[in-house]
């Protein structure tokens, strides 16, 4: 699959719903883990140290939020695949214009081929 990448033996591909646990440093040497769960819309970078992913989620107020995450970052605690998709394109930019319901219909319904 050309639009897939592996991270710690986990295969990530475009359209998958993933949860990224990201370490955030706060004041006085405190650290907490924040989870960012959304749809993987872009994989960028030719080599392993330069590889980055773009994850998009819809916030509670209905606004789309995208986050660019370098896979080689020491702040990534873990990445989990919540739901796998059958999407075949290299980028999923079209979901920026869709509602959450329409996005689910486009990415996660299996199409019957005749």
Automatic annotation (TrEMBL):
A Gene Ontology biological process term: translation
Family: Belongs to the bacterial ribosomal protein bL19 family.
GO cellular component, one term: cytosolic large ribosomal subunit
Signal peptide positions (record): none
Protein name, per record: 50S ribosomal protein L19
Stated role: This protein is located at the 30S-50S ribosomal subunit interface and may play a role in the structure and function of the aminoacyl-tRNA binding site.
Pfam families for the chain: Ribosomal_L19
Gene Ontology molecular function: structural constituent of ribosome
InterPro entries registered for this protein in UniProt: Ribosomal_bL19, Ribosomal_bL19_sf, Translation_prot_SH3-like_sf
PANTHER family: LARGE RIBOSOMAL SUBUNIT PROTEIN BL19M, RIBOSOMAL PROTEIN L19
Keywords annotated in UniProt: Ribonucleoprotein, Ribosomal protein
Organism: Candidatus Roizmanbacteria bacterium CG_4_10_14_0_2_um_filter_39_13
């Amino acid at each position: 699959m050309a639009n897939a990448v592996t991270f710690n033996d986990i295969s990530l591909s475009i359209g998958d719903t993933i949860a990224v646990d990201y370490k955030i440093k706060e004041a006085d040497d405190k650290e907490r883990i924040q989870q960012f769960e959304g749809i993987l819309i872009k994989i960028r970078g030719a080599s392993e140290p330069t590889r980055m992913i773009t994850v998009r989620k819809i916030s509670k107020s209905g606004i789309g939020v995208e986050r660019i995450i370098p896979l080689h970052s020491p702040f990534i605690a873990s990445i989990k695949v919540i739901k796998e998709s059958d999407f075949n394109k290299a980028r999923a930019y079209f979901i920026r214009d869709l509602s959450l319901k329409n996005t689910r219909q486009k990415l996660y319904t299996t199409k019957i081929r005749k």
